[in-house]
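User: tokens in, sequence out, please.
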């Protein structure tokens, strides 16, 4: 999991003022386990009486996403969720049951990209890849007996 400092540092480096709501958001995000939705944060902020509303939470999520420290995931259910991330290119393996997320690097995808570029004539600038399944703990618990 990311700690709040990484999120706060990213704001600082990009020249954003470290306002109280932004600090509160950094803490909120770093305390999430696995991936989380904007709605999860809204509920959490309310429970902790942080005094930050929906609009602030959505704006802060956008900002953290732009800074590359939070990444948006498109779940197979059609919902969107977020994970705290390192701002370097990587992929995720995501548990569909508990939401546990791990960063994975990019084995072989560059080669696929080059081959697609060659076949289609496209200049490919970016790609996304997310792998969904069951984490070892969840796979173990559904083991038929
Ligand atoms: Zn990540
Ligand atoms: Zn799991
Ligand atoms: Zn990649």
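Assistant: Sequence out:
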């Amino acid at each position: 999991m990311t700690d709040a400092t990484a999120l706060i540092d990213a704001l600082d480096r990009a020249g954003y003022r470290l306002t109280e709501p932004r600090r509160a958001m950094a803490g909120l995000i770093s305390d999430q386990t696995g991936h989380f939705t904007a709605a999860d944060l809204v509920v959490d902020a309310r429970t902790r009486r942080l005094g930050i509303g929906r609009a602030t939470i959505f704006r802060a999520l956008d900002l953290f996403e732009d800074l590359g420290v939070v990444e948006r995931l498109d779940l197979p259910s059609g919902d969107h969720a977020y994970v705290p991330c390192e701002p370097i290119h990587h992929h995720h393996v995501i548990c569909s049951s508990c939401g546990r997320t791990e960063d994975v690097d990019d084995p072989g995808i560059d080669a696929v990209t080059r081959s697609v570029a060659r076949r289609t004539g496209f200049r490919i600038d970016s790609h996304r890849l997310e792998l969904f399944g069951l984490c070892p703990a969840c796979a173990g618990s559904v083991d038929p007996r």
